[in-house]
Structures are given as C-alpha cells and as structure tokens.
Design brief:
globular, 39% helix, 2 domains, TIM Barrel, binds iron/sulfur cluster, disordered C terminus, alpha/beta
C-alpha cells in the first residue's frame, strides 16, 4: 500500500492521555487570540478573514495603550466589551473560562475585546442567577432553543415548562418569541426562571394592539428599554433591512420570511422612509449598553427557500450588518450577527466565511440552515445537517429547528427533538474543529462499547434513558452482545475473544460480571409505549425485569454469556429464553 499523507494541518489530537486515535483533526491548527481561533481549511475561492476587529472601532475619546485601551477620564465600564477593552477580567469571563476548560479567563477577555466573543449577560438577569456563557469561535459551539406563546396556542406556564425542558436537553440560550397571550408576563417569567441567556425580538411586542404602520420612534425606544429592564440578555434588531434592498425581494420565490423583516418592510413602504431601527440605531445602542444587552443583528432578508439563498437581497443586507457591527462596537455594545435560513449544502461555507469577513469576526448565529425544503415534519434533521456544516465553517451559535418548523407551534417533545438534533450538530463540529477535550466523551463511550459495558454505555450516552429503553425492548439482560447481531455475529464479542486484541478495554471499563440493570423507569416505559413495537404486557415484563430466565442472578453471569456457555449452548439459550421477549410477527397467529 502506498504511504499516505494525512492532512493534519498542525492541529493537536484532542484526546487526552496517550491512547489517542488517529488521525485527529483535519481542521486548521488552533489560533486562539488570532482571527481564526478554531477554523476549517478554506475551499479555494472563499473570502479571507477581515484584517480588522472591534479594536478598530473604539468609541470616540478612547485610545489604544499597549495591549489594552484607555477611556476618557471618569468613564465607568458597563458592558463586558468595555471591561475587556480596559484589560479587566470580569467574574463572568472567569465563569466562561471555567465552562470552557481549553480557555483561560484572560483569553476570554481578549476574545471579547476583539469582538470575536460575546457574553450575553444582562445585569438584571445576572442578579436573578444567570450562569454566564460565551459565544464565539474560540469557545465550544452553542445551541439556542426558540419558544414563546402564539396567538393560537400556548400560555405562560407551558412556555416556562418548555424552558425547563430546553435547559434539560442542553439549550445554551433560549429565545422567547411570544406573539400572543400575555407577552410581558411570559417574558418576565422566562427571564426569572432561566439560568441560560434569554433573547427576544422586541418588535414583536411593539406591535401588540396596534398596526405596524403606527409604530413610532418613541414606541421603539420605550419597548427596548422595558425589555432591557426586565433582564433580556440579547435582542434581535432588524436594522439591516433597508429601503434600497426591497426591490431585490421581487425576484425571490418566497419573499421575506423573517417576521421582523416583513413588518419593517411594510412600515418603510407605507411611510416612504428608511427603516427606523437603522435610523435610531445609536439610540438603541445606548439603551442596550446601560444593561449590557447584546445585539443579535437580525437577518430580516434571510432566504426562506434554497432558491433564494445567497441572493442580492441577502448579501446586501449582510453588508449593512457589517456596518451596524462597527457602529455598535463604537457604542460599547457586544454584537453577534444572525444568518440564514435555507441554504444548499455547497453554499454554506461561503456564507459563513463571507460573514466572517464582512462582520470582522463577530460571532455568527445561524438558523439551521436547512439544506433541502422538501421534508416538512423532519426539518430538525434537514437543518441539523446544515448546522453541522455551518458550525464547522464559522457559526458560533446554532438556532435549533424542531419537527414543527413551518407547520406548527413546538410542544415539549418537539423542543427535546430539536435540542438533541442541534447538540449533535454542535458536538460533531467541535470534534471536527479539534477543540481540546471535546472528543474525550466519544472516546470514553467507544471504550464502554468495546468492553460491552452496557451500564457505562448508557451512562455516557446523551440520552441514556432512551438508549436503554431501545436496548431492553429486544433484550432485557446486559450480556456480551445485543439483539442487533446476536451472540454468534457480535463482532465486539468476537474481538474480545482474540487474545492479542484487547478490544479497547482499559481499566475502569471492564465488568466483573453481568450486572443487573434496573427495571425500566416510567420515562423509559413511555418511550417504548410511544414506539408501539412491544405490547403493554411485554413492557410490563421489562418493567419488572425477567432476567431470571437466563440465570443472571446477582453476582453471576447470564447462562448464555460466552464466558460460561459454548456458542451452541448460548444460541440454544437465547432461542429458548430471550427471544421470547420479541412480539410475534404480525399475522403470525393466523398462519
Ligand atoms: S451484537 Fe452487534 S451491535 Fe450489538 S454489541 Fe455486538 S457487534 Fe455491536
């Protein structure tokens, strides 16, 4: 065989210890503190990163002195960006470093100062117990879960329940997108009950009880201030949709799909004026700075279908978002930028790298993107594929999509499905980027799998309850194979029998004997009921455990375990005892 060069590009293998697995990461070598941090190699033709950062957009009266900046006399820093520019490490930066063990608090400060990381942490929400987190390319990829009451469904209690559900399933931030019910009370309840940053789109509440045409500058600033006072950590502000962009929408398949973008476009057409979010931008910045509310610069012209991706309307708005990033940095505000939407897989890298250039490395917060439009009901999957690519190529925060996208308001289980799809995307990208330590989790689960240590396997699994229920659906005993291949065809068990090959076992993963697993929990029983594969009596048997059938008493191995039974005996025992857990084939009784 010809020797092959593996394109490692200098990245370190993230596995700790000496048992690392080749080939490690094919991504670029880490450059934390520089413009790339963790990055994918550029496909030829991709836009290079910007040479500028937030340091090039200091407020009036500030000057650089050494590594940091000096503010005018008497200036009191408020935002994380202002503290970072002055060289101050805040307790929120220290907390971010604790949660990102590959970064020091000083590196977090420097990334915030450069505008490449934000810590969305409203001072009011911090007083309620917000756990500070960072969004940026030097940090691990984060996910956002959307929720909120609509005019036709849901209420405050349900939304708080969804919040708890989203936190349980790993959402790093939550957006309250309520457009119905008691919006104010719902927002207040969500902020007070959340440990994760909360984002909102303030224009939604601005038009409750009035037409968009009646929106005034006073209403805009009052609403922004009210929500800042409530403790919201980041605002989507659609200031990038300009009058000049609207003619480009005509050529689209689906026009403007952003709620905020479409409302503001209507306002501009009715009044014949520029977007008030754009003209009022500095005043909005000043309110947000007071509470350290971060910007999430909205992409009001994001594509709503593959055919509209990377079109003139979207890219012109992106240029404006770059300008707004600079203006917000000059007012001391933290900024991330929102991105598309629906993008064919081959255009994702370009979209990520164009934003990196135009917005000078400000964190990119993307919705999906969906890589195909023809699977409604499964858009958590179509978008999770795009989100994985987006995170590998440049996004820092992934806004989840649930199975209800385009078709209805998500319920709690949809929130779970969306969160899990996006945890997969974020983690897969972090492993690919070679962020130190991220792959340890995978390697540990692989060791448990190689050792056929089912307890450890499910303990390490992201949703161990679900995995355990699926295992026990076919085989309610932990032995040295599972129902997928059965005893004789279990390659992991066979590998274990090859003396020279240790099957990846290491200390701490070997089991002394078959271990009785606990009976199914009510949640695991519910999982199996929902799948509809086993009849209720079989689920009941699983709940009370029938492992005596194979002699797996406490401290003993199952009678069919390869350590105590020949292959023939094991097969006979499985046929006689274990397969009885499977339901008869449909129609078998009639034959
Ligand atoms: S039976 Fe097949 S799927 Fe199950 S542990 Fe063995 S090799 Fe893996």
């Amino acid at each position: 065989m010809t020797a092959r060069m593996i394109p490692l590009r200098g990245a370190r293998n993230p596995v700790t210890g000496t048992s690392g697995t080749n080939p490690g990461s094919f991504s670029n070598a880490p450059a934390v503190g520089g413009k790339l941090a963790y990055s994918s190699p550029d496909t030829p033709g991709m836009p290079p990163p910007s040479d500028r950062t937030a340091w090039d957009f200091l407020p009036d009266g500030w000057r650089r002195e050494g590594a940091f900046a000096v503010a005018p006399a008497g200036f009191v820093p408020v935002t994380q960006l202002e503290h970072a520019r002055l060289g101050i490490v805040t307790k929120e930066m220290r907390r971010v470093a604790e949660r990102e063990p590959h970064l020091t608090a000083e590196q977090v400060r420097d990334e915030v100062a450069a505008g490449r990381m934000i810590i969305p942490a409203n001072r009011v929400h911090l007083s309620y117990g917000l756990d500070a987190m960072g969004v940026g390319r030097a940090a691990k990829t984060k996910i956002n879960a959307n929720m909120g009451a609509s005019p036709v469904a849901s209420d405050t209690d349900s939304e708080v329940e969804k919040l708890r559900w989203a936190e349980r399933w790993g959402a790093d931030t939550v957006m309250d997108l309520s457009t119905g019910g008691d919006i104010d009370a719902c927002r207040d309840a969500i902020v007070r009950n959340s440990r994760v940053p909360i984002g909102t789109v303030p224009i939604y509440s601005m038009i409750i009880g009035r037409k968009i045409e009646d929106l005034t500058e006073e209403i805009i600033l009052d609403s922004v201030r009210h929500q800042a006072e409530q403790g919201v950590d980041y605002f989507t502000i659609h200031a990038g949709v300009l009058r000049e962009h609207l003619p480009f929408v005509k050529a689209r398949l689906i026009g403007i799909v952003s709620r905020g973008g479409s409302l503001l476009a209507k306002w501009m057409i009715v009044h014949g004026k520029q977007n008030p979010m754009y003209t009022l931008f500095e005043s909005i910045c000043d309110v947000m700075r007071e509470y350290d509310v971060s910007f999430s610069l909205g992409d009001g012209l994001r594509p709503g279908g593959l055919g509209d991706a990377s079109d003139e309307a979207q890219l012109r708005e992106l240029d404006t978002l770059g300008e707004l990033t600079e203006r917000a940095w000059r007012r001391g505000c933290q900024v991330m930028v929102e991105g598309p939407g629906h993008v064919p897989f081959d255009q994702i890298e370009y979209n990520m790298k164009l934003q990196r250039q135009v917005c000078h490395g400000a964190p990119f917060y993307v919705l999906g993107p969906l890589v195909t439009d023809v699977f409604p009901g499964y858009d958590h999957i179509t978008s999770c594929i795009g989100a994985t690519s987006a995170a590998y190529h440049g996004a820092s925060l992934l806004c989840y999509v649930t199975p209800k996208e385009h078709v209805g308001l998500p319920k709690t289980d949809d929130v779970k499905q969306g969160c899990i799809a996006y945890k997969i995307a974020a983690h897969a990208a972090d492993v690919a980027l070679g962020i130190p330590g991220t792959r340890d989790w995978d390697d540990n689960l692989t060791r448990a799998r190689a050792a056929l240590n089912w307890e450890k396997h499910f303990e390490l699994a992201f949703d161990g309850d679900y995995a355990r229920a699926l295992h026990d659906e076919d085989l309610d005993v932990d032995t040295d194979f599972c129902a997928m291949c059965g005893h004789d065809w279990c390659s992991v068990r066979i590998s274990k029998e090859i003396v020279e090959f240790t099957s990846g076992k290491v200390e701490g993963y070997e089991r002394d004997a078959v271990v009785k697993s606990a009976a199914l929990t009510p949640e695991q029983q519910a999982t199996l009921q929902k799948r509809g594969v086993l009849p209720p009596e079989e689920i009941h048997r699983l709940a009370s455990k029938t492992r005596k059938a194979v002699g797996a008493e406490k401290g003993t191995k199952a009678a069919c375990h390869s350590d105590v039974a020949s292959d023939t005996d094991a097969e006979r025992l499985q046929q006689a005892k274990l397969i009885t857990l499977r339901i008869p084939e449909r129609g078998a009784d009639a034959e």
